[in-house]
Every structure is written in C-alpha cells, then in structure tokens.
Amino acid sequence: MSLDTEKTQVDARSGRRWWTLAVVSAAQLLVVLDGTIVNIALPSAQAALGMPDGSRHWAITAYALTFGGLLLIGGRVSGVLGHRRSFLIGLLGFAAASALGGAAGSPELLFGARALQGVFAALLAPAGLSLLSTTFTGRDRGRAFGVFAAVGAAGSAVGLIAGGLLTEYPGWRWCLYVNVPIALLAALGAGLVPADRAIRDRNRGRLDADGTPTTPGTNPAPADRATRDRGRLDVSGALLSLAGFAALVYGFARAESLGWGSARVWTLLAGGLALLAAFVVVESRAARPLLPLHVLRHRARAAAFVAVTLLFIAMFGFYLFMSYYTQTVLGYSPVRAGLTLIVNAVAALAGSVFVAGRLYGRVRPAALIVPGLLAAAAGTLLLTRLTADTPDVFVLYLLPAMVLTGLGLGCVLSPTAGLATEGMRGHDIGAASATYNAAQQVGAALGTALLNTVAAAATAAAVGSTQAAASVHGYTTALAVGGGILLAAAALTAVLLSSRRHGSSHPS
C-alpha cells in the first residue's frame, strides 16, 4: 500500500484533524488571554480583596513566573506522557486553577491560583503546538498555523476586551471563571483528537515512534527504544531553566516598581542569565537533555525565536499604552477601550489566515516575517505623533495603527510558529514548542517592564507640561523605543533567514 493511500485512509477513518486545530486554538486563546485579561480586572480585585499596593502585581507576576519558568519542563513532560494526554491534563488543571482563583477570598489564594494556572499553561501550550505540528503537513499545515497564529495574535486584545466587559458587568471574578467552560469544552473536543499513536501510524514510512526514519511495513520501534524515549527527566536542566527563567521574569517585573537602577533588579537579571548559561553547559553534556541544543543552532528556528521575542517586547508595550491612552487621556470606559482593540484583532486574523495562511509554504518565510515586523513597526511609530489633544485621533492615528500592527502580528506569528517546530522529531517537537512559547513569555514580561519604565521616566522628565501632556509624552517615547525594537527585529531576522539553507527541514 502506498504512503499516500495509507495517509488518505487514516484521515478518512478519523476525520478529526481539523478538530485538533479547533481545540488547540481554544487552548491557545486561554493561555494568551490570561496574560492580559486580569490587567483590567486588577483594580476591582484589589478593592474587593484588600490587596496592598506593594503586592498587587503578584496577580500578574505569579502567572508569568510559573508559565515562563516551567515551559521547557512542560515540553519535556509532554513528550514523555504523550502530547494529547498532556494537553488534557493541562486543560483540566487550568480549569480547576481558574475556578479556585475566581472563588478566592484572600489575596494569597488568588496569587496561588494564578501561579497554578501558569503551571498547567506551561504543560498545555507546548503540548498543543506539538499536536498541531505532528497532525498537519503540506498546504494544510500553512492553513492550520495561520488560524493558530491568528488566535495567538488576537488573544491579547481579546483579553483586554473581555476583561473590560466582564469587570464592568458580572464582576472581576468572571475574568477567571470564564476559563472554566472554555477549558471544559476544549477538553471534550480533545476526545476527538487523534491519539499520538494514530499520528505516528499515519506518518509510518517516514518516522517511527522516536522519530527515526523507517519504511512502510516495518515493525514498531522496539521496547528498548520506547523505554529510552520515555527516559528520566533531566532534573539538573529542569531546575536551572526554572530558576533562570523565574529570575529573569521576576527581575523584569520588579523593574517596573523598583526602577532599572535598583541593585535588586540587576542582581535578579544577572543571576537569571548566569543560571541560563549554566543550563546551556549542562544541556550540552546531558544524555537526555531537556532542550537539545541543535534546536537553537538551526538558523531558521533561531530567526523564529528572535522575531517572536522582540515582537512580544514591543507589542505588549503597545497594548499597555493603548489601554492607558484611551482611558486616561481620551476618557474611554474600560469596555470602549477594549473594543477599540477589536480592529487590531480583526487585522491579526486577516494577516494570519488570508495572508500568511495562504502564502505559507509558497514563499520564503522571510517574505512574510520581515514585512510583518516592518508593518508592526510602522503602526507603532505612527502613534509617536500623538499629543494630548490630537484631532480626529481614532481615524487618523488609532485605526491605521491598529490595522498595521494587527497585520504585522498575523504575518509574523504564523510562519514563526511553523519554523519553530519544522523538521523536529520525537521529543524535540515538545522542546521546540516550549522554547517558542517561552520566547513569547519572556518577551512579554520584558516588554511590559522595560517600556513602562521608559514611559514613566519620560513622563517625569516632562517638567512644566500638563498631566495629560506629560503622560502622552511618556507613551510616545516608549512607543518610539518599541518601534526601534521592531525595526531591529526585522533586520536580525532578515540576516538569519538570508542563508539558502534556511528552509531545510533538518535540525542542522
């Protein structure tokens, strides 16, 4: 029987590949949405639970710390347990943690629930991307990653919109409760996702159980190979990566309140970098590394990680300042401020599905990623012309900026998600997926802290201006830095993808 006939029969038998996309996209929405939805709800939660100003940031930081710090471990665990099983555990755990946070009667319980959300998100995110990568091939892969990227690109904006609506009407607790039905529906849908074994069987003739090339008709991998495939967790690497990412994310988060001149901040950042350097040394010598270093050495994957990290640094600052500008300067309600970002979400969807999704595999990745970064930079830099009393601000500035940044997001996230896992085999898929998600989380944490600190310093330096004018000066200064970061990302990505071998599916 030919490989194409076998593939057709398996697809007809299951008829469920697109269910995989639906449930993975729902999970991606949960993970990304929870990075922003609590921001708008936080003032109400603080008043209801009596949080001190000095500790309220933990409602945000606890999620980022555990999510970013545990992603590499989550990717490895997903490979050991199986991607679908890990996906289900992540969904159900995320739902339980969300319900616990919604019912919290004290700040400590809320912070603990948010940390627990991050734990399960760190398992859920790489498992979902791994399922998508192993399920779709060829032209369908481009369409699938287009939809997946659209959900990720729009998730932050949807979080702000949902946060405003839920906080203003049913109450802040529903910003957490809303995750429960979404997660449970996705978990039910995951029952229709082909099991890991079914996916391997469909791909038989190209890869066996641990990713080694084989031929049709050969027996499954021997028991010793399966045992090796489910080998022990790299404990040293796990602890170093967790501590390193946690120190970096916490350092970035504390920079917002302590300032970049704080010795504590620089101690955390230096310690985080030292721990990650030690992690690289340990991984280079480990028999079963948590992150095989060839995942990072490949030029195309390096380009994907660089592009998505710098994109998230700039865009999380963009969302933060759009929320503050529309509410504190233009006087929008939380709901109207959130709804303003619908334009960005729609543009991201269009860029992911109708541009990147259709062109994926037909053009070089650089032809999507570099223009996408430049479009996002143009939209961000356009807003540097804002003043406290800019006329026709929505039509002349906000609308085109939302369209440009949304299209840029959509055109970047789809091909970078594909490049991050392309050519990966066995457990390497989970490691690459986890690294891609970790790049997003570190970028988001750094962007929020870095650009907010820049804005605060520029606002304080605007002596003699009105409060509104000083605030807008701070926002536009930070947006100029964000635009510069996006331009640098475009240049670096163009260089990394300039090699003729960038499209190779081999890990290197």
UniProtKB/TrEMBL annotation:
Keyword line: Cell membrane, Membrane, Transmembrane, Transmembrane helix, Transport
Low complexity bias (residue ranges): 210-224
GO molecular function: transmembrane transporter activity
Keyword Transferase: no
Topological category with respect to the lipid bilayer: Multi-pass membrane protein
Annotated transmembrane regions: 21-42, 57-75, 87-105, 111-132, 144-165, 171-195, 235-253, 265-282, 302-325, 337-356, 368-388, 394-421, 442-463, 475-497
Domain of life: Bacteria
Protein name (Swiss-Prot/TrEMBL): Major Facilitator Superfamily protein
Organism whose genome encodes this protein: Jiangella alkaliphila
Native organism taxonomy: Bacteria, Bacillati, Actinomycetota, Actinomycetes, Jiangellales
